[in-house]
Amino acid sequence: TRKLQKRTLKEVIGLAFINQAAVSWHKEKHETTVELYEKALPYLPHDPLLKMLLGYNYLFVGKIAEGRELLEEIR
User: Fold this and answer.
1) Distance of alpha carbon 11 from alpha carbon 18, whole angstroms
2) 3-59: per-residue pLDDT in tens?
3) Is the whole-model pTM more than 0.85?
4) How far apart are CA 37 and CA 57, in angstroms?
């Protein structure tokens, strides 16, 4: 069997914001989604998945330069 990845309390808080953002994205509330992903960023500053998801949502709200920068960073 596989073990779950152990997370710090700080990472758990960031993941809670990511989960909340996923719900907003499903409802196509991209501005709220961006806000929630940005709140998660201080807790998970090196998470490539968070940066990818935030980058996509920046593109959806018209922040092309910010979105492109994040997506280039993880490429």
Assistant:
1) 10
2) 888 899 999 999 999 999 999 999 999 999 999 999 999 999 999 999 999 999 999
3) yes
4) 9
Distance separating alpha carbons of residues 35 and 54, to the nearest angstrom: 9
The set of residues, in sequence order, having a beta carbon less than 8 Å from that of 3 and lying 6+ positions away, is: none
Q: Please list the alpha-helical segments (H only) found in 1-75.
A: 9-26, 30-40, 48-60, 64-74
N- to C-terminal Cα separation, the chain: 32
Residue tagged 């196509």 (tokens): 28
Q: Which two tokens stand for residue 34?
A: 């961006």
Token pair 């492109």 is at which residue?
Answer: 68
